[in-house]
């Protein structure tokens, strides 16, 4: 099945909104074994939208639209699609009831223009929107499947997962199962070099690598008549990848390193703190972005200046004078200091040079990341190269990687680097 | 001039990379008065790329391609575009010399496949790439202009600014000048309501609003025979918007609230610290993401738990017991405490409920943001609604807004909210 994602919205063409929907949907469609061959974006203009629909119909088996399903005059997607496919729009009474209920529970007056959202192509499968007001839908005409989803990612993505994925699965006699193997501490090209022979020979299941922000993901996808069979085909591949790559595999189907650490620490009722220099609060900010972080994260110190390291973490200024702020010893003292100050079970620290300026001693990208427990302290020395944002992100991810290694009984320091 | 941005790369269709180039270029093209009517994405496949080029030629006056200019076998953009437009690719000797120089200064061996990058359509304007290896170019054929740029944003965007913008300006007898007016503390719909009459009447200059992450941007664009005339046409509009919206306008052509605060504080040699609860490090992380932050930011405390507020900021536990962690009094004590602990000139604080869970007293989205100077403390009480990421971002932005108001002599507290 060859798919086109057609996003509708002038805000995308003005550069006001980045089309993250197209990327997120493509990622999930790849997991379903559906080829996405085209993304297109067109504005809230009926003529140009109709032309883009005609192009999509001529080349794709599946068209997924995002955006333009709301109640205002520039929400044109349903009208134009229905006209292009020669289907009348009909009022869906159960969606009218759902809309009235939404407005009443949200204490907002129901205005007549909102009824527009309950008009959907005749004979379609309705996707009720539990995350907003505009329903989506799916229909088939002349051998082309169309799925319409709202534009806001907070509605588009859960509706894809909960409504479109089950619908797409009914279309195939085969079941597709897909798993994500997450890797930290080995680059994409090194992962590929280690697995290339294996990947090239595989047809079903398939194995592919993807570079993510600060780590690497491998996707295993199997097709089989039943879920159980597809699942059984994936498992040996996952085991083989783990055996080949070893400790750099941090999880299967986990969201991120920090989410894994949060769940491991929550399970064991352990608490965490962080002492941050070059990351400036990023370690804490990433962790506390996760719901449920407050049960684990006690707090931290952002000690950007040396005096702060002394005042907030009781680090002897003589230690910094002797070894430098960017040193094994300072990272160790920061982790110990913040653990004592917050009374947490575990503590991490990061000090280094994010650039663009260096300190005249260490090259830009030199970073020391520490982990303190009640018993001991580990420090990783890293050479992270250039790029301020990248260096800061990798420093934070190394702190989470040391935590996950400690929490899963692996050596905290990597064999190299 | 109607433009299509055609992005080439299978990684975009796999959802592995988000197409930020299309958004960034669209934003800059809007500033040049060029209408972007279509974005398309196609993979590294010569047949589908040629089809997409044919569609773009049939509807756009200007086609801007991104990606596919590199040295590997899947870098097809130039070959397919040249063939589509019937232009031969010719070797550009000055680009060969440039490439050899790049490899020698980067201490990497020059391999023959890199020569591919120096082949460009006959008669094109060459855009030398000072940010990577693959040159871009521009040409005109049969009334259609084509601009080809590399894919990585770190090369695509500076090449657009430094090479494509001057090229595009030579095409027009008119000069376009565009300015961005930045607003914090008033929503996009409120801004629009205040300016709608003015905006609807305007033809040249034009005025348009855009919702940005956590604030609002207005763009003023004027066309005139000379830069001076266009500039002179923009200025009265900027002044009128400032007069209408008042203190919520925080700057013209500034990057962000925190970048403005950094420059104001750098100018006056003032230092900053932050005490963060619900933001968990985000205030510090955003500020220290800016190069040059180390001259201003001394550090901070992330006091997610109440005991940390006592231990790190010396806040009397009785104060928290009496008023609660989410209170005017706690925000005040946090700002004072971190200012004392770090010895900074100014200090900000944030405490509140990011959700999804509440505290049983305050609704989710209740946030107190503080600002302490040597003389006094201000606290803003905010009701920021739902959405954990949004609440945390707005809390951080309110801290920067209080700083910029203090630093520019405005009342620190807003009239309402």
List the helices and strands and how they pair.
The structure is a homodimer of 417-residue chains.
Chain A: E1 2-8, H1 10-13, H2 20-31, E2 35-42, H3 46-59, E3 62-66, H4 77-84, E4 89-91, H5 93-105, E5 119-121, E6 125-127, E7 136-141, E8 144-149, H6 153-170, E9 175-183, H7 188-201, E10 206-212, E11 215-224, H8 227-245, E12 249-252, H9 257-267, E13 272-276, H10 282-288, E14 297-303, H11 306-313, H12 317-323, H13 328-342, E15 346-352, E16 366-372, E17 377-383, H14 388-407
Parallel strand pairs in A: 1-2, 1-3, 3-8, 13-14, 13-15
Antiparallel strand pairs in A: 4-5, 6-7, 7-8, 9-11, 9-12, 10-11, 15-16, 16-17
Helix pairs in contact in A: 2-6, 3-4, 9-14
Description:
Two copies of one chain form a homodimer. Chain A is of the alpha/beta class and 417 residues long. Chain A contains 14 helices and 17 strands. Chain A has helices spanning 10-13, 20-31, 46-59, 77-84, 93-105, 153-170, 188-201, 227-245, 257-267, 282-288, 306-313, 317-323, 328-342, 388-407; strands at 2-8, 35-42, 62-66, 89-91, 119-121, 125-127, 136-141, 144-149, 175-183, 206-212, 215-224, 249-252, 272-276, 297-303, 346-352, 366-372, 377-383. In chain A, the strands form four sheets. Chain A has a six-stranded mixed β-sheet with strand order 2-1-3-8-7-6, sandwiched between helices. Chain A has a five-stranded mixed β-sheet with strand order 14-13-15-16-17, sandwiched between helices. In chain A, a hairpin with a 4-residue loop joins strand 16 (366-372) and strand 17 (377-383). In chain A, helix 9 packs parallel to helix 14 (388-407). The radius of gyration of chain A is 26 Å and the shape is elongated. The first copy, chain A, starts with a strand and ends in a 10-residue tail after the last helix. In chain A, 47% of the residues are buried. Chains A and B meet through helix 1, helix 2, strand 2, helix 3 and strand 13 of A and helix 2, strand 2, helix 3, strand 10 and strand 13 of B.
């Amino acid at each position: 099945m060859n798919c086109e994602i057609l996003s509708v919205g002038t805000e995308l063409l003005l550069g006001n909104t980045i089309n993250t929907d197209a990327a997120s949907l493509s990622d999930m469609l790849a997991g379903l074994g559906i080829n996405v061959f085209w993304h297109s974006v067109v504005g809230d203009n009926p003529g140009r939208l109709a032309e883009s629909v005609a192009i999509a119909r001529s080349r794709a088996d599946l068209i997924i639209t995002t955006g333009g399903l709301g109640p205002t005059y520039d929400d044109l997607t349903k009208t134009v699609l229905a006209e292009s496919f020669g289907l009348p729009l009909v009022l869906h009474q159960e969606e009218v009831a759902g809309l009235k209920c939404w407005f009443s529970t949200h204490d907002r007056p129901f205005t007549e223009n909102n009824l527009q959202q309950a008009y959907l192509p005749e004979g379609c499968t309705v996707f009720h929107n539990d995350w907003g007001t505009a329903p989506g839908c799916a229909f088939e005409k002349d051998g082309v499947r169309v799925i319409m989803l709202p534009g806001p990612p907070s509605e588009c993505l859960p509706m894809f997962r909960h409504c479109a994925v089950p619908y797409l699965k009914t279309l195939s006699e085969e079941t597709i199962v897909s798993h994500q193997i997450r890797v930290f501490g080995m680059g994409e090209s090194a992962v590929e070099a280690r697995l290339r022979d294996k990947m090239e020979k595989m047809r079903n299941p398939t194995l592919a690598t993807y570079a993510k922000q600060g780590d690497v993901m491998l996707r295993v996808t199997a097709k089989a008549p039943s879920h159980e069979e597809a699942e059984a085909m994936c498992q040996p591949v996952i085991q083989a990848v783990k055996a080949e790559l070893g400790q750099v595999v941090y999880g299967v189907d986990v969201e991120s390193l920090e989410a894994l650490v949060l769940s491991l620490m929550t399970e064991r009722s352990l608490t965490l703190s962080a002492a941050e220099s070059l990351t400036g609060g990023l370690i804490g900010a990433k962790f506390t972005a996760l719901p449920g972080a407050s049960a684990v994260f006690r707090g931290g110190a952002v000690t950007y200046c040396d005096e702060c390291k002394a005042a907030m973490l009781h680090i002897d200024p003589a230690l910094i004078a002797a070894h430098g702020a960017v040193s094994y010893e300072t990272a160790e003292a920061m982790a110990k200091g913040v653990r004592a100050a917050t009374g947490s079970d575990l503590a991490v620290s990061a000090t280094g040079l994010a650039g663009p300026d260096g300190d005249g001693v260490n090259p830009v990208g030199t970073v020391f990341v520490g982990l303190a427990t009640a018993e001991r302290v580990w420090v990783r020395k890293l050479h992270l190269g250039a790029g301020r944002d990248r260096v800061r992100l990798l420093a934070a991810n190394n702190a989470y990687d040391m935590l996950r290694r400690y929490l899963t009984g692996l050596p905290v320091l990597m064999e190299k680097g």
